[in-house]
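Session log. Operator J.P. requested a structure for one protein chain; no other inputs attached. Running the standard single-chain path with token output.
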Amino acid sequence: MSDDDDVQYVKKPRTIHYGSLEDAERARLAAADGNEDSNDKAEGVSANPPQVHISTEYMELEDAMSRDKQALLEEFERRRKARSINVSTDDAEVKRNLRQLGEPICLFGEGPADRRCRLRDILSRIGEDAVVRREAEEERKQFEKDLETTWYHEGPESLRIARLWIANYSLPRAKARIEEARKMTDLPTATKTAKKQEIQKKLQIMAIYSSQIGDTRPISYCQFSPNSKLLATASWSGLCKIWSVPDCTLKQTLKGHTCNVGAIIFHPKATVSQEENICNMASCAADGSVKLWDFQNEEPIADIEGHMPHRVSRLGFHPSGRFLGTCCMDCSWRLWDLHQCTEVLHQEGHVKPVYCISFQIDGSVCATGGLDSFGRVWDLRTGRCIMFMESHLKAILGIDFSPNGYHIATASEDNTCKIWDLRKRSVLYTIPAHTNLISDVKFQRDGGDYLITASYDNTAKLWTNRTWQPLKTLSGHDGKIMSVDISPDNQYIATSSYDRTFKFWAPEEQK
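Structure written below.
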């Protein structure tokens, strides 16, 4: 072949497939399976299926990649947001913001610019308004804390007059009480021991002296008169009655309340040095009414208004008889000046209703117990809360000052009676007294040598002073004992009950 001959090139034609090969492949596989099945049937041998490992597990590569991608995008977005956050250029304010967020205000080798960048980075993570939210939270907590603290405001002129009068009245009495206590310490130990043993012997032989049905409804309260010759009882029927002691003769019926009477008390000078036609008694009821009574009329001589519609649970006379304290269910207690005929103090401080009140023998302080399970001791000369009693688990239903001036007994719904020391401002002893709530507690008025508690377990119990050991259990009521009192001459103990009776208790030798 010469170079001049023409060379012909043949180009291989390209095969072009239109459409997907999936359908053709599926048809080919189906035809192959059909042929194999027909062959197996012809031979009469069933072919075993191929051993193919089939698993549903698979690596979520795409999901993992998408999560990483999302996290990366979020990080870019956060950095972009951080660059747009405005942070103060004042380094002191930057440190203050870091402190509010709970972050260290300075790191080792960190300058003001680095600190600003760190604050900007933190804000981009927790929110640009985190500082503002933290400040608002701190203000809210401070506000709640302020609500729990005792606050004072300027009172009227009548309050200033009352406080000066109380100071002048209480200081000489406190001096006399301290002198008397010093004289008692000079007594021989044998003499004091013999006196205590004699008192304990009398208490251990206490028994029912007399019993009287007092009303058609439960007897909610009872109290002896200062001369120990009369007993006042209050009932849920709305009636208050005066009985002779110890023969239980009805002397007077006081009509004026229209609902449950919570308490009736004698004026400290009633039946002793006070005339019969002036205020000798005071009572309170569930409708918020407080009434003053004399010994000559069945109707009240005066009403003290200002509590309605809130219930008044207990009340107490100041040792001078000039002031009357009332416990109201609006979480406050009031002090009324009967000479000025006005309310001189409306004291708040409890977070739940105030239930009971007791005045110290000097007249300088008073103690209140509330349904919030707390007690407070108030200085009447300054208005300050000088002691906060926090130990009970449930509501305080009874409170009483010892004649020594510094011991306080509280009766609670948690079935215990606690003894507090005003000098130490702490709880001194806890008496696991009863199996049900304790409704009332009273110290012996002359010397405070023993204590009595009344309970809804239908019993009253006597306890020694100092060691607080049980002496005697007074059982005889068929219902809950709602109130208890000790006569000033130490001859009798009175208990009033839900069973509509009141009973006198005395040593068996007096019968």
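Operator note: Residues 163 and 381 are 5 Å apart (CA to CA).
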